[in-house]
Amino acid sequence: MTAIAERAGVALDTVYASVGRKPEVARLLVETAISGTDQAIPAEQRDYVRAIQAAPDAAAKIDIYAGAVAAMAPRLVLVLGVIQQAAQAEPGLARLWAEIAERRAANMRRFVADLAAVAPLRLGLEQAADIVWATNATEMYQLLVGQRGWSPQRYERFLADTWRRLLLADV
């Protein structure tokens, strides 16, 4: 927090008054990383969410979401990694980390329900949502792109292919 105040050229109390404490700053960083802009955009107003909802078939929905995840992951990987590590010592950040995980899970349930509305699924909704939740985690991006040297495009194709194979029933 002190570094933020110094970089902004303001007093620490000014940071607290305008943005809040660490959990609020961290939440703002996550939201802006997701949106790719300098402001938080509610999920239902994000372009990729609207595109998924408008897509006519499950394969198109999966492709759109895989593209969105691949675009967001580089912006989120460091922010979420810091929050996850700091959550061990900061109760406010631990609550934020748990909130982020549950919000992601809820969003995956909505995504999978949207898929199920247009195509038969191989699994139940909860299990399918858990698979999307686990595979779209920034840890997966860090492992494959950061450590194994995959390109973001290869990672995107991997997600789309994995989700098609694991989620959609053979028809």
Notes on the protein architecture:
This protein is mainly alpha-helical. It has a single domain, classed as Orthogonal Bundle (Tetracycline Repressor, domain 2), CATH 1.10.357. It has helices at residues 2-8, 12-18, 22-35, 47-54, 58-86, 91-116, 125-135, 138-147, 152-167.
Strand content: under 5%
* Biggest β-sheet description: none
Separation of termini? 54 Å
Top CATH class: Mainly Alpha
Low-confidence stretches: none
Compute the average pLDDT.
89
Cα gyration radius (Å): 18 Å
CATH topology: Tetracycline Repressor, domain 2
| Total count of domains | 1
Order of helices and strands: HHHHHHHHH
Discrete helix count = 9
- Decide which structural class fits the backbone: mainly alpha
User: Quaternary state, please?
Assistant: single chain
Quick one: overall form? elongated
| Secondary structure: number of strands | 0
Helix content: over 70%
Which architecture does the CATH hierarchy give at level 2? Orthogonal Bundle
